[in-house]
Amino acid sequence: MKRLVFILFLAAVGCNGNSAGTKTVYVDVDVPTTTNPPTVVTTPTTTETYAVNYNTNGPDETNDPVVTVDTDQIITIFADTTAYNVGDIVYINDASNLRINGYTFAGWNTKSDGSGVELGKNENGKTFYQMSDANITFYAQWTSIPYTVTYDGNGGINPPDAQTYIFYQTLVFPSQGSMSNGSKTFIGWGYSSTATTAITAEPVCSNLTLYAIWE
Predict the structure, then answer these.
(1) Tally of CB atoms within 10 A around 15
(2) Which of 49, 75, 111, 207 could in theory staple to 83 by disulfide, Cβ–Cβ 3.0 to 4.6 A?
(3) Model confidence pLDDT, tens digit, residues 13-23
(4) In sequence order, what are the residues at sequence separation of 6 or more whose Cβ sits closer than 8 angstroms to the Cβ of residue 191?
(5) Distance (Å, rounded) from C-alpha 65 to C-alpha 196?
(6) Cα–Cα distance between 142 and 59 in angstroms, integer?
(7) Which domains does the chain have, with CATH numbers?
(8) Which runs of E-coded beta strand occur in the chain?
(9) Which residues lie below 8 Å from residue 43, measured CB to CB, with a gap of 6+?
(10) CA-CA distance, 189 to 176, in Å (whole number)?
């Protein structure tokens, strides 16, 4: 609110022949005021992006040196340099050609021990994952192939029952038990019916038959 002041000059003759003089009039009015508008600070909007990585997650190579899938193959087939946003769908290349001796590929998981999120397939059979707000690593999952070791009495009777092993597991030879071959002495087990030298502890890499050695 501002007050305007008006001074009026009176032309009429006042009392006693004097001039009427002046008269001051005060008027209160609303006068618009001009102010500077507030400064708006605009912060640039940045979208965080996230990366996808792959891990072969194979068996311990100290116990399983015959691994046929190496890091180079994973990098070649599954290298992903895309920067993903939250909610993006990641489609994973076909992994049916991944191989590790003694194991079959069993899919991808977000945890190395398989306790995380198992990647599913869409209606087109394509493996996919929806990105969250973090980098993610997909770990290959593997199922061990069972191998059977069969024991042949090689002329003897009552050989031990077959045993089941997983790849590269060390053979544990059964004892002679009730197996016999007349008066012959049991020496051990060999890879062929004509073997003369008993084998020692060996890792299992396939189905096999062991033959009793007698002398």
Answers:
(1) 6
(2) 49
(3) 443 444 445 44
(4) 199, 208, 210, 211
(5) 29
(6) 9
(7) 1-31 (no CATH), 52-144 (no CATH), 147-215 (2.60.40)
(8) 2-9, 22-29, 52-55, 89-91, 103-109, 120-121, 127-130, 136-144, 146-152, 163-166, 186-190, 208-214
(9) none
(10) 10
Query: Tens digit of pLDDT for each residue in 180-195?
Result: 999 999 999 999 999 9
Strand arrangement of the beta sheet that strand 146-152 belongs to: 163-166, 146-152, 208-214, 186-190
Residues listed for the chain: 215
Tell me the two tokens of residue 212: 């009793």
- Helix (H/G/I), strand (E/B), else coil: 170: strand
SS3 (DSSP) at 74: helix
* CA gap 1, 202 in Å, rounded: 103
**Cβ neighbours, 10 Å, residue 107:** 18
The C-alpha atoms of residue 50 and residue 88 are separated, in whole angstroms, by 10
Annotate 91-131 with three-state secondary structure: ECCCCCCCCECCEEEEEEECCCCCCCCECEECCCCCEEEEC
pTM above 0.85, yes or no: no
Tokens of 135: 């980098």
Do 146 and 166 contact (CB within 8 A), yes or no?
Answer: yes
Q: How far apart are CA 203 and CA 107, in angstroms?
A: 27
